[in-house]
Amino acid sequence: MHETLFQPLTFGALEAKNRVFMAPLTRGRSSQPGSVPNEMMATYYRQRAGAGLIISEATGISVEGLGWPAAPGIWSEEQVEGWKLVTDAVHAEGGLIVLQLWHMGRLVHPLFLAGEPPVSASATTAPGHAHTFEGRKDYEQAREASVEDIARIVEDYRHAAENAKKAGFDGVQLHGANGYLVDQFLRDSTNLRQDDYGGSAQNRARFLKEVLTALVDVWGAERVGVRLSPNGETQGCDDSDPATTFGEAARVCEELGLAFVELREPGPDGTFGATEVPKQSPVIRQIYSGALVLNSDYSPEQAVADIDAGRADAVSWGRDYISNPDLAERFRLGAEIAPNTDVPRSWYGEGPKGYIDYPALTEAEAAE
Description:
about 35% helix, 13 helices, two-stranded antiparallel sheet, single chain, eight-stranded parallel beta sheet, alpha/beta
C-alpha cells in the first residue's frame, strides 16, 4: 500500500530509504543544567529510525538563541557528546538524521538571558506568552540586532554546524520558519530595518543567505536544508506579500544548491496559529529545483497524491510520529495510526511518559 511513499529518494549527498520523513518536534527532554541530550533522547530517536529522514527537534545554536525549557543545544562539548548518543542510535538502526539549527530571536524571554532583552531583526514584541522554567510569561520587547550582532550570530550558526558534524549528524537544517529569528528577518511585519538587511525582499533575505552560506561552508550544499513557513501568520510574524518574499528565499536556496527545502503548509487547525491561506509551494517549486518536502496535516493518501503529481518529493509528519514510533511501517502495512491521547502534556513534559513508551506494532498486529 502507498508504494510511492516507499521509493528511495536521493537528494544532495543524502539517500533516504523512503519518502516518510519525521518533522522536527520540540519535546523538552534534555538534561539540565546545560541543555544536554541524553540516553532517553537516544531511545526516542532510535525508535523512529524507520523514517526516511529524521529532522531533529529544534536545537539552540547559543545561549542567546535558546528560550525553551529543556530544549537541547549544540554550542558546548558536553552537548556534542550527548548528541553522539542519538546519532549512533539512529545509525545503528539504519536511519538518517540531520540536526535542525535554531535561534528563537524575539521569542527568547529575558529570564533565559539573565534579564537582558532578546535580539531580533527590529525592536518588536511578540504576542502571547513565552514558556519559561517559571511558567508562562508575557514576551518582552527585543532589541534590534546591530550589524556586528548579525555577524556574530552568523558565526554562532557556523560553530553549531561544526559541532553537528562532530556529533555525527548526516547534515543540518536551518530553522527558518515559525516566527523565529530567520523568519523575523524575512517577513516585513517583523523586519522594519532601513539598512542592507531591511526594506526589499532581497535585503530581508540577506540574513538567511549569510547563515546558509556559513552552513554550506561547513557541510557542503549537498547536506544542508532549510525549513520555511510561507503560509500566513505564525507567532506574530507575517508578510504582506509572501509570494515575493518566499520567492526570494527560494532563489537563495537555488543559488546555493541546497539539498532540500521543507515547507510548513498547515490547514486551518494547524499549530502556531497559522490560518488557511493560499499555498506558496507552487511558487517555490518553480524557482527551487532541489528536493521539496511538504509538511503538516497530511494523510498518507494526500502525500502520495502530492508526490505523484510532482508537487513534492517527500512529506514530513510531526504529531503522528509522537505516538507512532513506527509510523512509516504502519503506512506500509495500512495499519491503524495510534492517537496521541495525552496532548499537549506529553509533548513537552518531563520523563519517559508520553515520550518513549508508545509501542510499535507487534508481529501479530502487523500480520492482521
